[in-house]
Design a protein that fits this description.
alpha/beta, nine-stranded mixed beta sheet, two-stranded parallel sheet, 44% helix, elongated
C-alpha cells in the first residue's frame, strides 16, 4: 500500500465577542471526529478560544474551554438580566482615580477658560428670548438650550466634562491585570504550555498604535517565533498582555502597553491575517474558517446595550465576510498553492446574540457544533485525515 500523506490543516478563529460559543461548539464537533489542526490563526475572542483550547489537558479540551468561558467571561442568566456586563470587563478603579488626579494636578484651572462671561451672557439672552416666545417651546429647542446655554457655559459642568473626556482614561474597562485569574489559568495552568513540544503554530494579531512619527501597523504574535526558522520577521511572543491587546476594543477596553508601544484589537483591521498564514505555511491542504459574526445577528437596538453591541458588529460582519472572499480570490489568482478553504457556516436561523449570558454561550455552542456536524455529514471527505490519492 502506498504511503499516505496526512493533511496539513489550519483553522482561523475570528472575532465576535459574545458569539464565542460558536467557536467552541465547532471545535467540540471537530474534536469528536479527530479533526486536528497544525496551525491556529486567531483574532479577538477567537484568540482567547484558541489559546484556552490548546492549553487544556486531556481529551475533553472543548468542554474545558466551554467551562473556562462560562466561569471567567459569561454571566449566569439571572445575574445578567439586571447587570448585562461581561464578567471580565473589570473597572480600573485605581486607574480612574490616578487619571483624574493627574488631570486635576497637571491641567491649569484657568478661570478664563472655565468661566466664559460672553458665552454666559449670550446664553442668558437666548434663555430670555426662548422663555418669551411660546412658539419656540419645542423639544428640539429645549434640548439645544440645555446643551448650549446650560451645560456648555456652566463652569462645573465644563470641568467634569473635560475631566471625563480628556483625562488619560482610554476605555470603560480594563482587560489586563497582572494577577488576573483568567490569564493565570491560560499561561500558568497545569495544562500544556503554548510554546511546548507538539504544540501547533499559533498566531494572533493586534494593532500597534502610531507613536513618535512611527505609523500604526499590524503586529503578529506567535507562540514560538523561533520555530519558524527566519520566517517570523518581526513576530513577538504570545503573552498575557498580547492576548489582552488583541481584543482591546477601543472605548470598551483600555489599550495595552507592550515594550513602550500601545496596542488595540487587530480584528477591526484584518480578520485573522491570512497573508501570514500563507507565507509561513505554503504546504497547507486545508484552511478552515470560523467567522462568528454575521449581519443576520444584528437586530434593531433595544436600549443602549443593544446599540453598544451593534457598534462593532455591524461593520465587523462585513469586514469578516469580505476578508474570506478576498482570501479565496487571492488563492485563485496564484498558482503556488491552492489549499481548500472550508468555511464553517452560521446557521441561517441563528439565535446567537451579543449577550454575555450563559444562555447565549450555550446557544452558540449548540449552533457551532450542529453546523460542523452538518458539514461533515454532507462531505465526509473533510473529516478524513489523509490526502486523497
Amino acid at each position: 500500500m502506498a504511503d499516505r500523506t496526512k493533511k496539513k490543516r489550519a483553522i482561523a478563529l475570528a472575532g465576535g465577542g459574545p458569539a464565542a460559543g460558536l467557536h467552541i461548539g465547532a471545535l467540540a464537533a471537530l474534536q469528536e471526529r479527530d479533526v486536528a489542526f497544525d496551525v491556529f490563526a486567531l483574532s479577538c475572542v477567537g484568540a482567547w478560544v484558541g489559546l484556552v483550547y490548546n492549553t487544556r489537558p486531556g481529551p475533553d479540551r472543548a468542554q474545558q474551554t466551554y467551562e473556562y468561558f462560562e466561569t471567567h467571561c459569561f454571566r449566569d442568566d439571572d445575574g445578567y438580566e439586571w447587570f448585562p456586563v461581561n464578567r471580565g470587563f473589570a473597572p480600573d478603579c485605581k486607574g480612574m482615580f490616578d487619571a483624574w488626579s493627574r488631570f486635576a494636578a497637571t491641567t491649569p484651572l484657568d478661570a478664563a477658560k472655565l468661566v466664559l462671561p460672553a458665552q454666559i451672557w449670550r446664553g442668558l439672552l437666548h434663555t430670555q428670548a426662548l422663555a418669551l416666545d411660546p412658539g419656540r417651546w419645542t423639544l428640539r429647542e429645549f434640548n439645544y438650550w440645555v446643551l448650549n446655554d446650560v451645560l456648555a457655559v456652566n463652569p462645573l459642568a465644563r470641568f467634569w466634562t473635560s475631566l471625563t473626556y480628556q483625562s488619560d482614561m482610554k476605555g470603560l474597562s480594563r482587560i489586563y491585570y497582572d494577577d488576573s485569574p483568567a490569564l493565570r489559568d491560560i499561561f500558568e495552568g497545569a495544562g500544556p504550555r503554548l510554546d511546548g513540544a507538539g504544540m501547533p503554530d499559533i498566531y494572533h494579531n493586534a494593532w500597534r498604535l502610531p507613536k513618535d512619527g512611527k505609523p500604526g501597523a499590524m503586529q503578529i504574535f506567535h507562540n514560538a517565533p523561533a520555530r519558524l526558522e527566519g520566517r517570523a520577521d518581526g513576530y513577538m511572543p504570545i503573552t498575557a498582555k498580547s492576548l489582552c491587546a488583541c481584543s482591546a476594543l477601543p472605548f470598551i477596553e483600555e489599550s495595552i502597553e507592550i515594550d513602550g508601544d500601545e496596542y488595540t484589537e487587530g480584528a477591526l483591521v484584518d480578520t485573522v491575517n491570512f497573508k501570514n498564514l500563507l507565507r509561513d505555511h505554503p504546504d497547507l491542504d486545508e484552511v478552515w474558517v470560523s467567522r462568528i459574526v454575521d449581519n443576520r445577528q444584528v437586530h434593531p437596538a433595544k436600549g443602549l446595550l443593544g446599540s453598544l453591541s451593534n457598534l462593532p458588529m455591524q461593520f465587523a460582519a462585513e469586514v469578516g465576510e469580505n476578508d474570506v472572499k478576498l482570501f479565496r480570490q487571492h488563492l485563485l489568482n496564484q498558482t503556488r498553492m491552492r489549499p481548500r478553504v472550508v468555511e464553517i457556516p452560521i446557521l441561517s436561523d441563528t439565535d446567537v446574540s451579543f449577550h454575555w449570558s450563559h444562555k447565549n454561550l450555550r446557544q452558540g455552542y449548540d449552533e457551532g457544533k450542529s453546523a460542523v456536524e452538518q458539514m461533515l455529514e454532507a462531505d465526509p471527505e473533510l473529516a478524513r485525515p489523509y490526502r486523497a490519492d
